[in-house]
Amino acid sequence: MRAVDAVMECLKAEGVDVVFGIPGGAHLPTYDAFVGAGIRHILVRHEAGGGHAAEGYAKATGKVGVALATSGPGATNLVTPIMDAMMDSVPVVFITGQVRTDLLGTDGFQEADALGITIPAVKHSFMIQEPPEIPRVIHEAFHIARTGRPGPVLVDIPQDLSRVDIDYQPVTDVHLPGYQPTLEGNQKQIRQAAKALAAAQRPVIYAGGGVVSAGAAAELVELASADRFPVTCTLMALGAFPASHRQWLGMLGMHGTRTANYAIDEADLILAVGARFDDRVTGKLSEFAPHAKVIHIDVDPAEISKNVAAHVPIVGDAKHVLSKLLIEYRALGIDSSRLDSWWARIEAWREKHPLQYADSADTEIKPQYMIQALHEATGGEAILTSDVGQHQMWAAQYYGFSSPRRWINSGGLGTMGFGLPAAMGAAVGCPDQLVCCISGDGSVQMNAQELATCAQERIPIKVFIMNNGYLGMVRQWQELFWGGRYSQVEMGAYPDFVKLAEAYGAAGMRFANKDTLVDDMRRAIATEGPVLVDVPVTREENTYPIIPTGHAARDMVG
Amino acid sequence: MIGVGERAALEPMRFEEALVSGHVRTGRKHVLSILVENKPGALTRITGLFARRGFSINTLTVGPSDAAKTSSRVTLTVDGAVDPIAQVTKQLNKLVNVLKVRDMDLEHAVSRELALFKIACADGLQRGALMQIADVFRGKVVDVAGHSVIIEVTGTTAKIEAFHEMVGSFGLVEMMRTGQIAIARGCSET
Asked: Which end of chain A has less neighbouring CB within 10 Å, N or C?
C-alpha cells in the first residue's frame, strides 16, 4: 500500500479517532488517504488553531493529540503550538508535509526546514528518508510523545516519499536505545523521603502538572490525607487536589494565595512532585523557601536540582512514586499532632488573607465576580480552558477546580490564542461534558477564526470573553511598575463580538448586568452549538495578590 | 496606586547589573564525549543545547564509532562552570538519539588532536631547521614544495600549542586543527 495509507493504519493502531488539520500541496497524498480511512478529520481555519486544538484534546482526555499541516507556512504556523506543548509537557504528534525530496534545500515552493525550525521546541522529531521506515516512525513518535515526561513530536514526510508503495507490516513493539525513561522511583530514596516527611514540623506538598500527566491525583490526595499535609498546586496542576479540601492552601506563585506562598516561605520541608520551580512560582530564587529541605519527585531527571537544589531527589513517575511513598510513610506510624501548631499558623493566614475583591455597588461586573458566576452557572463541573492574561489568573484563583483535566491553559509559554481552539479540542475529546473557555478581548482575537470550525462541526463550546477593552495584564504592569505610562494596551470596543459570532455561524450574546449574570450564563450554556459571550467588566481592575518580579513570596502585595 | 518594585523600572539598567543575574562561566574546561545515533538533525540538536545556554563550543569532532556507522562519537570542548554544564549534560541525555554522555576526566583519559601546519621556508637552511623542530615534536613532514612545507603534529592540545609557538617565527601560511578527541584509560568504555 502507499506509505500514507500505512500512516492511517498506524494512527488507527494508536487509537487515534480524531485529528485536526488543514491540507496543502505537500500533504495531498496524506489527505487523499483520509478519504474512507475511518478517522475523523476536523478542518481547522489556521494551523495554530489545529495545534492548540490537539493540545486541548490531549489535556482533556490524557490521550495523544494529533495535528497536521502542510509544508512551508503550514509547518511554521505550527511552531507556536509545538513550543506550547513542549513547555507544558503535552503529548501531541504533529505530522507535516514536506516538499518532494528533489526540491529539498532548493528553496522550493512552500519549502521550510520544519525539522530545523522546530528542533529547540520538540521532545523529538523525525524526517522521513526511507518510505519503509514510516510505520515504525509513526509508532515511535506516539511512544515518545506519551511516555516519560510527555511532549510534542514532529514527523516531517516529503510528498514524494509518502506516495511510495511499501510492504506494510503492523509494528508491535518500539525499541529506542537512547530513550528509556525511569518510571519507578528508587526505593531507598523513597524511604528517605518518608523519613523526612515524618521529621518535618512545617511540611508543604507542592504539586505540579506532572501529577496530572501521570494520573496521580488520587495518590496525591491519599498521601496528603495520610497526615494532614498542607497542599498547594501550580497553575498547571489546579484540580489535581480538590479546591474544597480543607488541606488546600490555594494556588502557589506570583498570583497565588498568600497562604500558599507564606506556607512555602516558612516551610521546613517541601515535597515537590511533578513541578519544576518555575520563576513564576519561586519569585526571587535565592530567597525561595529559605528554611526548607526539598524532596523532588520528577520523571524528568533534568528538572531535579535545575532551579532549586533537591535534598532528596527521586526520578520517577508521580503515580508510582507517590503510591510507594504512601506505603513507606504509613509504615512509620507517625503522630500527626506535631502539625497542630503549623496548622494554627496556616489557619491564621487563611483568615487574615482570603482572596478578596471589592464588589461593585451597582450592576457593573467585576472580573472576579464573573468567574464566580461562571462557577455557579456550570456547577463548578465544566472543563474550563483559558487564554493568557488577567482573566487566566482570576479563573485560576476563583473557579475552584474539583478534579484534574478540568483546567486547561497555556502556562509555560503563555500563548494568547490558546483558549478557544483548546476548548474546541477538549469538546471533541469529551463530547458528553460541558466545555467552556474563559478568554479576554485581546486573547480571543488571536484564534477567533476557529469559531467557523466549531460552527461547521457543531462543536458546542461556550466562550466567555472578559472584556475590559485592554490588554489587561500588560496594562496592569504598566500601571504598577512603569509609572502608569500606558503604551499600546488600549483595544477599545472592537470588534463587536456579538456580530463576529453571528458572522461565523455561532450564537453571539452580551451580558452586562451583574444581577442577572448567572442566569444569563446558564442561558448561554443551554444554547445549542458554539456560543460566544461578550461580558464587559470593570476596565482597570488589577489581579491581586501579586509577587512583583524579582521579589520573595513574603513581599506579596495587594 | 501602590509602589512596588525596588526602583522605578523607567530608569535604565546598567549592563553590569544584567550580567550579575546571568551565569558566570569561570569554571574549568570540559571535554564531553557523546555517543549519538546517526539520525537527521542529531548534531544540530546537540549543538543547539549549548547555544541556548550561552556556551561557546571551542572544538567539535565527529566520526563514526562502529563498523556499521549507525552511531557516531562526538567530542566537544567547552568552558563552563560546573553547575550549568551539569544541566546541559542532563539535557543531552534527554535527546532521543543520544546514547551516552560522559564529562571526561582528562586525568583518566588519553586525549589527542591532530594539526597541520603549512610553513613558508625560503631555503634549505630554514627547511632543515623546521624539520629538526618537527622531529622533536614527533611531527611528520607530509608535503614539501619549493617554498613551503606541511608538517603534521599529533598530541595533546598543549603540545600542539607549543609547536605552534615554535614555528610562529618561520612564517606560518596556515594552520588547521581537528579539535580534541578523548578516550577513557583502562578497559572501561568511554
From this structure: N
C-alpha cell read off for A156: 516531517
Residue B44 CB burial class (10 angstroms; 0-12, 13-18, ≥19): middle
Retrieve residue B149's grid coordinates.
612545507
ipTM comes to: 0.89
Cα angle, residue A277 at apex, residues A409 and B34 outer, rounded to 5°? 105
Q: Which residue, among B2, B11, B17, would best test binding to A if mutated, counting the most A CBs under 10 Å from its CB?
A: B2
- CA–CA separation, A520 and A522 (whole Å): 5
Distance CA B174, CA A304 (A): 47
Minimal-distance CA residue of chain B relative to A558: B2
Question: Is the torsion defined by CA of B61, B64, B66, B72 positive or negative?
Answer: positive
Three-class DSSP labels, A471-485: CHHHHHHHHHHCCCC
Question: Considering only CA atoms, which of B165, B59, B162, B176 is closest in space to residue B117?
Answer: B176
* Exposure class string for B5-43: b at 16+ Cβ within 10 A, else e: eeeeeeeeeeeeeeeeeeeebeeeebbbbbbbbbbbbbb
For A299, residues 6+ apart whose C-beta sits below 8 A from its C-beta are A148, A149, A181, A182, A183, A210, A214, A274, A315, A316, A317, A318
Question: What is the CA A425 to chain-centroid distance, rounded?
Answer: 13
Instruction: Kindly list the distances between the CA atom of residue B95 and the CA atoms of A117, A299, B46, B54, B101, in Å, as whole numbers in the listed order.
Output: 16, 15, 8, 19, 10
Determine the residue type at A106.
Answer: T
Portion 172-191 of A in contact with B at CB < 8 A: 176-179
Q: pLDDT at position B1, please? A: 36
On whether any CB of chain B is under 8 Å from the CB of A482, the answer is: yes
Residues of B within 8 A of A116 (CB-CB) are 41, 44
Q: With contacts defined as CB-CB under 8 Å, which chain B residues touch A483?
A: 8-10
Say if residue B190 is exposed, middle or buried (CB neighbours under 10 Å; 0-12, 13-18, 19+).
Answer: middle
C-alpha cell at A530: 458554539
CA distance linking residue A13 with residue A89, whole number of Å: 23
Q: Rounded CA gap, B5 and A174, in Å?
A: 52
| pLDDT in single tens digits along all 190 residues of chain B | 344 544 456 777 777 766 655 555 556 788 999 999 999 889 999 999 988 887 888 999 999 988 788 999 999 998 877 777 888 899 999 999 999 999 998 899 999 999 999 999 988 899 999 999 999 999 999 999 989 999 999 999 999 999 999 998 898 999 999 999 999 999 888 8
Would the CB atoms of B5 and A176 count as touching at under 8 Å?
no
Contact between B1 and A484 using a beta-carbon 8 Å cutoff: yes
Spatial distance between the Cα atoms of A274 and A319, rounded to a whole number of angstroms: 10
Cell, residue A465: 470573553
How many angstroms separate the CA of residue B68 from the nearest CA in chain A?
16
Q: Which residues of chain A neighbour B44 with C-beta distances below 8 Å?
A: 116, 119
In chain A, which residue's Cα lies nearest the Cα of B9? A482
Q: Do residue B4 and residue A546 have CB atoms under 8 angstroms apart?
A: yes
DSSP strand E in A15-91: where?
A: 18-21, 40-43, 65-69
Count how many pairs of residues, chain A against chain B, have C-beta atoms within 8 Å.
65
How far apart, in whole angstroms, are the C-alpha atoms of residue A331 and residue A326? 9
Do A71 and A115 form a contact (C-beta atoms < 8 A)? no
Residues of chain A with pLDDT under 50: none
**Whole-prediction pTM value?**
0.95
A18 within 8 A of A179, measured Cβ to Cβ: no
